[in-house]
Amino acid sequence: MLLQASDIHVSFSREGTGFFRKERRAVLNGVGFSLEEHRCLGIVGESGCGKSTLGRVVTGLLAPDSGTVLVDGKDIHACRGAEKRKIGRCGSIVFQDYSSSVNPRFRVEEIVAEPLLHEKLDPKERGERVLALLEKTGLGSEFVHRYPHQLSGGQLQRVCIARALAGSPRFLLLDEAISSLDVSVQVQIMDLLIELKEKDGLSYIFITHDLEAVTYICDSVLFMHKGRFVESVTDLSRLADVVHPFSRNLLRSVSGLETIFEGDGERFPTL
Ligand SMILES: Nc1ncnc2c1ncn2[C@@H]1O[C@H](COP(=O)(O)OP(=O)(O)OP(=O)(O)O)[C@@H](O)[C@H]1O
Ligand SMILES: [Mg+2]
C-alpha cells in the first residue's frame, strides 16, 4: 500500500477563548483511508468539512493530534531528519489558487526548479530537467523564460503540476486544483493527469466539490462530512447507490448527473 492513514484526529484552538481555557474544535474525527499505487482517489465534501486539513496531514505538513500516516509502511510524522525529507517528497500538493502559489517575480524555469534546489545539479542539468518537466505537462521551451502573468490560468496550473512533479513524487494531492479553470481547460488538465498516471504510474488524491470531475478521473471516491468519512464508493458505475443522506444530497445537487436518478424517484426520496 502506497499510503495508509488511520484514525486521524485534528483539532484547532477556538478563537476568542482565554489563555487558560484552551477550548479546541475537532476538525477531523478519526479519519482513515488508503491509497494504492497507480490509483486516483476522490475526496468530496462540503466546504469546511476538513478536506484540506486532511491533505496537509497526509503530505506531512501538519502533524495530527493522534493517528498515523504510513507511506510505504513508514510513519511520516514519526520520521526525522533525512528520512523525513525523503518521505516528504513522496507526496506533492497542487493547490486551487495557482496564481498565489507561485512567486510572480520568478520565471517559469525558476518556479519549476524550486524543488530541485537541494539537489546538486549544474545549471545545464537543471535546465534539462525543467524542460523535461514542462514537456511532460504539455508546455514547450517557449514558456521557460515567461513570468506567471504571461500565462493563461491553465498554462500556469500546468507549471504548478510540473513543479509538483520535480521531486519525483509517488502521489499528487490535488486540492481543488482544477476548480477555478474553465470547463474545457479542466478536461485538458484531467486528461494530462490521466496520461501521467498511465505513463508514470503516479497516484492521486483528488479533493473536489465536483462530482462530475470525480466520475471523469477517479477510480474511487470517499464522501466526507463534518470531519468523518461517511461513505466510500469503489465502483463509480454504482455512484447512484450511495446511501448516506449527505452523499445522496450531494449527488442530487449535480445537474450533470441527474440521469442517474431518472425513474428512480422511489429509491431516492427527497430529503
Ligand atoms: N490552522 C487552522 N486554525 C484554525 N482553524 C482551522 C485551521 N485550518 C483549518 N481550520 C478550520 O478547520 C475546518 C476545516 O478546514 P478545511 O480547510 O480543512 O476545510 P475544507 O473541507 O478544505 O473546506 P473547503 O472546501 O472550503 O476548502 C474549517 O472550519 C477551518 O476554519
Ligand atoms: Mg479546502
Task: Write structural notes for this entry.
This protein is of the alpha/beta class. It has a domain at 95-168. The protein is built from eight helices and ten strands. It has helices at residues 51-58, 81-88, 108-113, 123-136, 153-165, 183-200, 211-217, 245-252, and strands spanning 3-13, 24-35, 40-45, 66-71, 74-75, 91-95, 171-175, 203-208, 220-225, 228-233. The strands form two sheets. The chain has a six-stranded mixed β-sheet, with helices on both faces. It has a four-stranded antiparallel β-sheet with strand order 2-1-4-5, with helices on one face. β7, α6 and β8 (203-208) form a beta-alpha-beta unit. α4 (123-136) crosses α5 (153-165). The longest helix has 18 residues, at 183-200. Adenosine-5'-triphosphate (ATP) is lined by residues 12, 27, 45, 47-53.
